[in-house]
Amino acid sequence: MCKERYASAEKEFKAGNYGKVKEPLEEILSTCAGTGYMEQTQFLLAESYFHLEEWLEARGEYGSFVLNFPSSPYIETAEYRKAVSSFNMEYTIGRDDSNTDLAMKDFERFISNYPNSPLIDSVEYYRAKLMERKAEQDFRTARLYYRMDHPRSTIIYLKEFLDVYPKSARLPEALYLLAQSYTAL
Predict the structure, then answer these.
(1) Closest CA to 85 of 106, 116, 115, 110
(2) How many other C-beta atoms can be found within 10 angstroms of the C-beta atom of residue 25?
C-alpha cells in the first residue's frame, strides 16, 4: 500500500503537480511509519513546498528532514534549500528582521557542515544579499536620526555602519551623512 501511494505521489510530483502531492505525502508520513518510504516522502514533501514557493512550510519540512535523516544522500540539498527557504520568507525593510537573522544562521550552518560543497558560491551570493538587507536597515536608522536633527546619534550609527558594512552599496551616502553630521556639530 505504501509503495503504491508513494509511486503515485512521485509520478504526480514529476509531472509538476506539486500542490496535488502534498496531501498524499502527508498521509504516507502518518500511515507508513517504519517503512522504507519515510525518507523519500519527507524530502518529496519539502520539495513540493519549495516548488510552490511556500517558504515557511518548505523550511519546516526541510528542517524535519535534516533532523530525522542526517545520513541521507539528500541531506546537503535539504540543508541548502532550507537556507534558501529562510532567505525567501517574508521580509520588509524597517520591520522585524528575524527572518534575515534566521537565514544568515542557516547559511552559516551550511558552510560549517559543507565547506567544500559546490554550492558555496551560491551560498556566498545569498549571504551578501542578507548583509545588504542588514546594512540597509542600519543605514535607514542613521538617516532617521539625521532627519530628526540628532547629529551625535547619526555619527554613532554611521561609524558602526562603516565598520560592519564596508562594502555596502550605501557607502557613499553614509560618508556624506557622516560629514554633514560632523559639520552640524
Answers:
(1) 106
(2) 27
